[in-house]
Amino acid sequence: xxxxxxxxxxxxxxxxxxxxxxxxxxxxxxxxxxxxxxxxxxxxxxxxxxxxxxxxxxxxxxxxxxxxxxxxxxxxxxxxxxxxxxxxxxxxxxxxxxxxxxxxxxxxxxxxxxxxxxxxxxxxxxxxxxxxxxxxxxxxxxxxxx
Length: 146
What we know:
Number of helices: 3
Largest sheet: 5 strands, antiparallel
Oligomer: single chain
Distance between the termini: 5 Å
């Protein structure tokens, strides 16, 4: 069994951004030499998520609209009350909404690998979804298999 890990470096440009990383993940699978197994796509950030869906521009707009509707930016989030927070190291962003959006998606997806290829349909893409941009981000890809 092989285990291969690589990191993808991204930089988001907007507050909410759906970044298609499918080709980058496939390149890492190619480098891994794994022909049969699975790949884990994991984001170690609490204001970002991973999703698999169709990369069609109007649909991506719908995804963004529904996120704004479900978790509005201008709602009252306890996280944003910095004067009540006792933790150190805060970057000062009022980003409670970003954390809440992120928990709806989750921070990882696992995709099967068959014959060295991601087992995705032609209508599926892997998105790194930024909810607190613009930022530099890391995404970890771990390929496991034979």
